Amino acid sequence: MRLFLSVASLLLLLAPTVAAEQPNIVIIFSDDLGYGDLGCYGHPTIKTPNIDKMAAEGMKFTTFYSAAEVCTPSRAALLTGRLPPRSGMCSDTRRVLFPDSAGGLPASEVTLAEALKAKGYITACIGKWHLGHLPEYLPMKHGFDSFYGLPYVNDMDRVPDKGPKGRPAFFDPKIEYWNVPLMRGEKIIERPADQHTLTKRYTQEAVKLIKEKKDTPFFLYFAHTMPHVPLFASKDFAGKSARGIYGDVVEEIDWSVGEVLKTIREEKLDKKTLVFFTDDNGPWLLFNEHGGSAGLLRDGKGSTWEGGMRVPGIAWWPGTVPAGVTTQEMASTMDLYVTALKLAGADVPADRPIDGFDITPLLTGKGKSPRDTMFFYRGTRLFAVRHGPWKAHFITQVAYGKGAPTPHDPPLLYHLGRDPGEKFDVAKDNMEVVKQLKEIATKHSKDMKPGEPQLEKRIPPEKK
Amino acid sequence: MRLFLSVASLLLLLAPTVAAEQPNIVIIFSDDLGYGDLGCYGHPTIKTPNIDKMAAEGMKFTTFYSAAEVCTPSRAALLTGRLPPRSGMCSDTRRVLFPDSAGGLPASEVTLAEALKAKGYITACIGKWHLGHLPEYLPMKHGFDSFYGLPYVNDMDRVPDKGPKGRPAFFDPKIEYWNVPLMRGEKIIERPADQHTLTKRYTQEAVKLIKEKKDTPFFLYFAHTMPHVPLFASKDFAGKSARGIYGDVVEEIDWSVGEVLKTIREEKLDKKTLVFFTDDNGPWLLFNEHGGSAGLLRDGKGSTWEGGMRVPGIAWWPGTVPAGVTTQEMASTMDLYVTALKLAGADVPADRPIDGFDITPLLTGKGKSPRDTMFFYRGTRLFAVRHGPWKAHFITQVAYGKGAPTPHDPPLLYHLGRDPGEKFDVAKDNMEVVKQLKEIATKHSKDMKPGEPQLEKRIPPEKK
Q1: What is the 3-state secondary structure (H, E, C) of chain A?
Q2: Which of B336, B369, B402 delimits the end of a domain?
Q3: Could you report the predicted ipTM of this complex, rounded to two decimals?
Q4: Residue range(s) defining the domain that contains residue B435
């Protein structure tokens, strides 16, 4: 009996250590998927049974924000926990990195991969990078042990003299029009990348990684190339969805999510793996049927209206994240940085401002989100602020094209609880709220120290 | 052994009879709820855990249509299985019945209640009627054993000289402005009805009915008054939802659905009760935050765009309707008429055109929907036709107000699979489809014999 008690006591003593075991972290990051494009977010004709099941087994966020309205700054913020201006990874003219860009994520930034690697994690980047394609900026210079994917966006390299100019090439995309390279590590292994099979091959890489690495904690940053235009699906999915090629592509990503979760279960890692599914920014509405839908939210990619930055967000970690919960609590991709560091037992960098929060209490069903405020930048400028349910737009601008920024004073004010579609400006009836949001914006802007701009730098023509 | 076999054989012989047992039929019909207003249809700030659970335990339709864009014709079609012009329950001027209307659903129509009553069902109407408030048109003249609810809409009777005129009274509704009567059977029992507690009291009636009637099959037509403006919630729900009063009201309906399903389970009726939740038409967008949202669908109540007639649709019947299924198959409220009759062993009236289909194969997970076509009437005129994924608009008109009908030749054509938001007219690239839809419309219109118009009839002033 004494022995039995001793063993029990020992087990009790061990329990906190077991609970504090470093979990695997998997972030699945799609590209240009809209808030309304998944079954569990209400889409009528795209079938996403695997992601819907992930939501049913986990926590679905209805108020989850990417940190920017376009790709490069959004990814920089996810991997650094910092608003894009701090790292210099945003711009008012070029907006994202291009194949002629000479800039990239500065080495001085502490990426999620670096921080987790320092705590013993195996770190892998599968999919789209887009934080600098020159050798000094590639994933393996930023803390990743491995990289398999594209250095930038799938629409950025065209084969000269192939296919129609401009948008028509997107609406009838043929693989021979596009010239984006596929890399492994720091080497180009295929050019043009066969985009038809990218989602499938990324998934095979992810499954392989999960199977191989199961004795060491791992961080998998799985950043899909799709559903960014031009859209390509494998033959198992092409022509299958009621939603056309856009639906085919999203349904293949849904399949991919299913494969990842299935592998995690099969390897008995489900009790020690946090998987978070989200997206880099809203749907690219310019591309009509080849772009997604933000559901009832206003506008899409490129815009600081809700449709540009509110994205699907689903957390899955059986036994730790409660099942079947829908939360309206506010959170952001930048919070994933801080939360992952905390879960891994890493310190959050103390020598610089960090814009993320630890949402572990929310994820574990034990508390609320510490985030009550969100800053909406377009490029280097603060366009809007949300605090609680209220959002003030100080500047608005059409998502793409020649429209100039339109300042608003008083700002446009929306109550996102009662009016999630940002239809009814209620500033004049709520001047106290306007005042409070102005103060929050002023204080924030005063404290903001932008980093060296990276997106304007270009490779000199003679070096191209 | 011989005896044992005989008993087994007897049981086998009995089995088909047991399987064919008449199920209870419950139709829960909300008023002006939008396609996008439930959690399981993607709303970010309205919480509907009970309806979401109903969907998770049953079948969620993404392509379910009410039979009209406004209230009276939609209800007439649900209860007769016939498009509104056939019963004369539609109009191009008044659109619905009013307190000064002298018309109503003709006695010659065979309502769902009459047909089920003839097969031994107890029939109850709880909630809003709106198919004629003169004595000869009330629910108990149309096959219902009991009625507890409002004869018409909650915004139609104003107390003279109380409150502001017109829309401001809706945006700051006080109970003393409104004078709609509450009836039991054919008697007015409360006037004005206390609208704060209508949802709660309807629910208590429904729960009582289910508890009392469990030895006889029953048909419960539970037609909520809410969320039609003016919006009122009980004190348990008022001020609770992030979506404001509209959300409070929908969350109380969600509670009500939960109470109904809970009672059905407690009474052990769940294996023999089909519950269908749906709505009469799209959200009334005119009323801003007091109106709902059609999600990514275009427009709302009063319109033949998808947002006016595509509504939430959820079937629940544990053990018979498969759990956790989302279907894109097309169905309509008129199909509930035919399906309920079939399930009850009743014949569908053979002496008149019926526009519904038996969707039992779909509901039981054994087949597809027999419906491949939907006709979109506004008042007496055919505005649009859907066939498969294609929808042609021959006429469009603003939902409310002075805009005239705009004919289109060629019609506007949308592919609702690829473009559920009806954004991209693709008629000129699909003239073969246009031709086919025109032929369907022409044939349908040739065969349509409208009934005597009911909605223009008015009570002579001296009798008011």
Answers
A1: CHHHHHHHHHHHHHHHHHHCCCCEEEEEEECCCCCCCCHHHCCCCCCCHHHHHHHHCCEEEEEEECCCCCHHHHHHHHHHCCCHHHHCCCCCCCCCCCCCECCCCCCCCCCHHHHHHHCCCEEEEEEECCCCCCHHHCHHHCCCCEEEEECCCCCCCECCCCCCCCCHHHHCCCHHHECCCEEECCEEEECCCCHHHHHHHHHHHHHHHHHHCCCCCEEEEEECCCCCCCCCCCCCCCCCCCCHHHHHHHHHHHHHHHHHHHHHHHCCCHHHEEEEEEECCCCCHHHHHHCCCCCCCCCCCCCCCHHHHEEEEEEECCCCCCCCEEECCCEEHHHHHHHHHHHHCCCCCCCCCCCCCCCHHHHCCCCCCCCCEEEEEECCEEEEEEECCEEEEEEECCCCCCCCCEEEEEEEEEECCCCCCCCCCCHHHCHHHHHHHHHHHHHHHHHCCCCCCCCCCECCHHHC
A2: B369
A3: 0.93
A4: 375-447
CB contacts of B389 in chain A (<8 Å) are 242
Question: Of A338, A371, A404, which residue sits at a domain end?
Answer: A371
In tens, the pLDDT along B357-409 reads: 999 999 999 999 999 999 999 999 999 999 999 999 999 999 998 889 999 99
Tell me whether A369 touches chain B (CB under 8 Å): no
| C-beta atoms of B242 and A417 within 8 A | yes
A36:B328 CB<8 A: no
- Which residue is closest to A389 within chain B, CA to CA? B242
| CATH number assigned to the domain comprising residue A105 | 3.40.720.10
Residue B419: give its domain's CATH number.
Answer: 3.30.1120.10
Please give the residue of chain B at the shortest CA–CA distance from A53. Answer: B324
**Do A433 and A395 fall into the same domain?**
yes
pTM to 2 decimal places? 0.94
Of the partner residues A39, A52, A243, the one whose CB lies closest to the CB of residue B418 = A243
Assess B296–A contact: CB distance below 8 Å, yes or no: yes
